Structures are given as C-alpha cells and as structure tokens.
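pinging the channel bc i need a second pair of eyes. not urgent but kinda urgent?? the chain im working w is below, pasted from the shared doc
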Amino acid sequence: MVRALRIVTLVSITLLVSAAKPEPPAPALDKDTLAALKARAIGPAIMGGRVSSIALDPSDGATFYVGLGTGGIMKTTNAGASFSAIFEKEKVAAIGDIAVAPSDPKVVWVGSGEGNDRNSSSWGDGVYRSEDSGATWTNVGLGFSKAIPRVVVAAKDPKTAWVAVMGDLWNPGGERGLYKTTDAGKSWKRLLSAPSPQDAVAGCGDFAVDPQNQDVIYAALYARRRTPWSFAYGAAVTDGKNVSGIFKTIDGGAHWTKLTKGLPDDTGRIGLAVFAKNPRIVYAVVQSDEEGSSTWGVRSKSGGVFRSDDAGSTWTRVNPLNPRPFYFSQIRVDPESDQRVYLLGYLVHVSDDGGKSFREDAFKKVHPDCHALVIDPAKRDRLLLGTDGGVYQTYDVGKTWDLLNKFAAGEYYRINVDDSVPYRICGGLQDNSNFVGPVRTYSKDGIMNSDWIQIGGGDGFSCAFDSKNPTLVYAESQGGEMHRFDFATGEIKVVKPEPAEGTPGYRFHWNSPLIGSVHEPGVLYLAGNRVFRFTNKGENWKAISPDLTAKIADRIETVGSGAETYGIVYTLAESPVKKGMLWAGTDDGKLWVTEDDGGTWSELTSSLPAAAKGEWISRVEPGHDAATAYLVVDAHRSGKLTPMIWRTGDRGKSWASVSGDLPDGGPAKVVREDPTRPDVLYAGTEFGLFATLDRGAHWVPFGGLPTVAVDDILVHPREKDLVIATHGRSLFVVDDVSALGALTKEARSEDAKLFPIRAVLGRYPYPGWVDSSGGTVYRGDNPPDGALLTFWVKATGPDPVKIEIKNASDQTVANLTAPAIAGLGRVAWDLKPTKDVLTEYGGEGSLFVRPGTYTAILTLGKATSKQSFDVKIAPGIETR
C-alpha cells in the first residue's frame, strides 16, 4: 500500500512539472534587440562631402544620381530640390562611378570603390546593379576590384556594360583592367590588362567607348600604389617597365594597340573623352613627369591635354595643363562642339578653342577640388559638378551656381563636445574646415544648416573647446596647423608650436591629435613626432616628450600636402581617472605612456600583440581605471582588413583581444568605453557602428546607421548621448545610451524593466516653417520633446507595455503605452497630461505639468518597475 501511494505521488509530481510553462529565454542580443536606440541624423549639410560621380537619367533630366566617395548614393527626381539616399544597406559605401542604361533608365549600374587615390579613400566590393531605379541593388561580381572609376552601359542593351578596374590602392593583386559583361554581370571577361607581373599593380584608370561604334574603345592603363609614407605611379611601381598608356581596340577588345605617336612614354593617370558628333576626335589628359615634375604646379612639363583628330593614330599636345593628376584627371567635351572642353582640377578649367587655352573665371564660385562633371545633352548650358564640397548645378554654363546642400555627406575625422545646454559639437571634415553646431535646437525647423558655424581651417581634424572660456574653441588642420577661434569676436589666431631657428623641425601628421585635459581646465595637448602641452589659451606651450617615433629615414616626410608624412603620433589620449597620465600611439606601431604629464615616458611597443606590431595604431582609449586601456589597429594599408581591438588591464604589459565577432573585412577605427559600465563598448569601423555588452565577446550593429565609415564616437559625460562622426554622412546622435549600461544579465532576466530617466526641461519650440518647406531644405533631426523612457521586455507578447506617470502627490498625470516587443523599447512623454486623465487632473491639455519629481511605473503582466525623475520647466511658462 505504501509503495502504491509513492508511485502515485511521483506520477503527480511528474505531471505537475510537465504542465508548467517553461521560462521564456531572454532574447538574443542582436541589432533588433537594441533597435529602439536609433541614431538621429543631425547633419550638417551646409558643406558637402567628396562627390565621385554624377549620372543623369537620359530620359528625364530632372532625375540624377550622385555618388559619394564614402557615403553611398543620393538620388533626386526634381532636379536637385530634394534628395533621397538609395545605397544605404549595401556592404560598402564608397562609390567609384554610376551609369544609367540609355535603353532602360530603370537599370542603374554602380562601380563601388572610389577611383580618386586619396589617402582617405575607401574601397568597394565590386559592381552593383539595380533594375528598379535604385530601390534595390544586387552585387553582380568583380568582388576583388576594390576601385572602379568608370562604368559604361551599352547604348541598346542594359545587360551589357564595361567597367574600369583600378584595383587595391595599397596592396598588389586582385582584379585589375578593363572588364565587360553581356549578361547583366553573371559573367565577366577581362578585355585589357597589363602584362604579368605588372598587372598586380596596374589597372584601368579610365576608358571611353565610341558612341557610334561600340566595338571601338579607348582605355588607359594606370599603375599606382600608396604606402603610408609614399605615393608612386607609372614605371616607379612596375619595375621600370612602361606598361601604362592609352590603348585602342576596334574589335570589341579582342585585339589592342598601344597609342604612342605624340604621347609621352612614361605615363601615370590618364582621363579620356570622345567627341560624340565626330568620334575621330579624342581628348586625353595625361600625367607624365618624364621631363621633370612640379609638386603644386598645375602645368606639366611633358603631360597635359592631348587631342587626336584621327581616332588616336596621332596626338597633339595642345596644353600643358594637368593639375594634381592622381586626384583629378577628368576631361569632358561638349556633345555639340569639339572646341568646348572642360578639364577638372582644383577648379573647372574651360576651353573654347579645343584646349589651346583655358579659363576658370566663371568657375571660381564653387568649392575647389572637382571630380565629376555632367553636361546635360538636352540643354548644354546646364552642368552638374561634383566637388570635395558637394554637388553644384548651373543653367548658364557656370555664371551662377546652386550648391545642392540638401543632404548630409560630410566626411568627419574627429569630434568633441562641450558642456553647454544644449551642448555643442565641434568637428573637422575632409577639405571642409572645422564646424561647430548644436546637438539640438528648440525649433520646429529642426537643426538647420544655418545653425552651424565655420571656425576656419583647410582639411579639418581634431578640435577642443576651452573648458575655462565657452567663447573659445581650438581646431587643427593638416600638418598640425592649430588655431584658436573666438566666438565673441570672430578672431582666428594660429597657435601652432614652432621650433627655434637652427633646431630640428617638428613633424605633424595629416591628422594630428589635439585634446583638452579633463583634469586641468585650459590645458591642451597636441601631438606630432613629439607631444606638446599648451596653457594660457594656447599662447604658451612646451614639448613634454622626446621624438616618440621610429624615425625611419626614407619614411619620415614626403613632399606634397603632408598626407604621406609618416612616423608620427597619430592617437593621443588622457586617462579620465588619473591626472598626468597620457597614452600615445604612432602610425608606425609604437605605443607609449606617461604618468607624470610627460616627465618620463615608458615605451610599451615590445608587449604589443604580434598582429599589432609595426601597424597603424588608430586609437588608444583609456579605461575606467588607470590600468585599463584599449588599443585599435587599422592595418588596411598592409592588406589586413580584420578588425583589431585589444584591452589591457595592467598598464600595457599584456593585451587580450576584444574584437570578438566583429565582421571581417571592416577594420576598426575607434573604440569607446561606456562611462557607466566598462563591459559596454562602442566601436566604429570602416562600415558601421557596433556595440557590445560583454566587453567584446559579442558585438552587434548599433544605431541603425547606413553603411558608412565611423571615424569617431564619444559619449557626452552629462547627457550620456552617443555622438557619432561618420566619414561620408556627417553626424548622428543616439540619445541617452545609459540604458545599455544598465542592461546587465540580471536586467535581461526580468520580464520587464524600466531604466533610469534623465532630468528633463519643458519648453516650447519656436514655430518655424517646417510644415511649408516641401522637403527642399535640409533639416537635421531634433530629439523627441520631453522625457525619454527606455525599458526592457524579455518576450514579445500581445499585451502592451503600460507606463503610468505620477506626480509627488501620487496623482496620475499621464498614461503611456508601447508594444511589448522583445528587447529595448522607448517612448517619449511630452510633459503634458494625457487625455484620459484631463478630467481628474483638471483643465485642458496644452499646458505642461508643474516642475518637480515624478515617478514612472511600468507594468507588463505581473511585472512592474519604477523610476523617479526630475522635471524642470523653463522660467515664465505657465503650468497647470
């Protein structure tokens, strides 16, 4: 009997266990889990970014596409009144060229990877094709091409296209030459290449197809290679063999002839153009230094503009003009007049006599550095011009220009913030100076271009606000050109350190680090080959380090812009917890630390991870304690595209990788530690922004950004906003990321949880004109008005999340709801009573609640969570 009872009991227990519902697991940490914390684009669009290509729809002159060197593609259907981004989620963001199929304008071809050989140029992963005017894209091959400067689609067949492939800028190998497809990219045939082994460094820089006979093609082979300390082209990179030059085929690429009569022998980059009405007339702009070179001169001693009137058999040098060939080398001829020729350079050079003479008077009204030009065949006075400062349009051949600054495409290098309310962001951009603007405005207009102030410089880089004087900000341009800007007076004063006469010169990087001290207000640090400390508004300075670089003789300094100057401190950072502790990393793989403000420096290079040795140290990030720091190495210049981030917890004696599962192929550029929890890190890579909650074991895409390089990120110390500087799409902000710091394993195990809410100010926005703009003016996004309430939901369910807001008297003033979707969620309360409580609360709902402490209570099923927060109301505003 006892045994029988025991069996029944065991069976009952088993049935009870099997009937119980299993506990739902916490959702996996992925981009959807964190999607509620979406970045808002704040611009600015007052300046443009580098435009590499423009393509006009042949059936509709109001529609054209703008290819950005590092920011994807923008499209307009209303002649530039407004633009939409259409190349947002592809694997790469660098655009080399765009071509619209003449026979079917819905078919658009894109060569990814910029063809301008800038030290900051990014790379692509082949050819993309769209059959719906850019709404969707398919990668159709040539995945190892890296840079595609030209794409041409056959006149009558949208499946047939030719592409020029230049190949990797930094490393030999990969695909190079002129390629053709006749089946929409399913297969490719290489029509022209340099002989082996020179084809490892020589590619096709440009080509032109005879519009009347597409079996006739002119193509230019171009050999070039960058290193961190040099840029070489032509025979200098092909073992003395002249494999570059202009080649011609008359049988669709089966056979080629090198065109030599009248052309220089040793050539570099070449641009080509065929006159549409008479294809026997061909123009070329040819780089050649075989009779001597000139660093900044726009006239070549042996190269320049060449013209052929017999389909390339013979050439005549009509003009020596050829400004900075590696960066420009673009020539265009008017479709109706062979005498009207356009040559792109720092300016647009225009000839009305077949290239014999050029003028640029009407074209001085645009941003310098011109890369793309389209002549509207239906209206030849209309030109579209792409520059380092955006895209321009003229309807009178350049007499007047309209800068189409309707989209944000700034190429930021570095940013900084101050502690004003709202706080300001300063940052430097490629060829677009340094700018300061607000993180938000109190206007329905949003953040306008007019809200940004230029503070001077050429290429802009690091900047720092004066922590003692809010009217002062310091900024740096290429080569350590540091200056001070005064908002009160507009004064700009150069404060770059200069050595005494007769002593060794200082070397500064193209992008020199400049930081303000968090421990000593008014103190600044700037680094070149040495580290400098500034006081007294930058007026007084001293070197506080020896030369911290390897000092390899043939790599120290190259003639030119300074972009190849090498052997320099590239990253400098101050410990946030220990005064006088500075970390310095160089582009030649050296790492140093001082703990006494430069009195003594300890070299840590020997203890670096093997993969980091000799490579470009992109960033050092000091951690939450003095022993902790993070190291970021960007080795794409050495052909290594793996993201590399390490952490030390013992002052650099040993390092452990925190790269985790960051996607391969996108080198890391910057890492930041969250100030509230050191397990939370943010990483900017060549292709996006990532976050980790477990110190690098697992990373996820974060912020919902388009594919773009993230060069700098920081967390505002007061607001806990994540500010993001992209190199191609300007600035983004994720408002209040403190929830990530609170999203511990314990928090994720709860069914629902409300996170701390930051204090909020109630005020009314200025009316603005946003409702009547029609979308033709760029407006950066402001954050939602009111309090941001961020919460966690463990499992998706049918019942909504309910959030009740109570005042200090325990009176309900608002009831909010949100969908219960697994992961983080966020709602905004506008600091006004909701309609359901108006009767109880009394009166109409247009007034703010009174200032004071409020409590938010979240309810989801049986789970509850609450947080208190302060509400401030701007003085003079009537409350209920």
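so Residues 1-20 have pLDDT under 50 and may be disordered. and DSSP finds four helices and 66 strands in the chain. — does that match what u expected or am i reading it wrong
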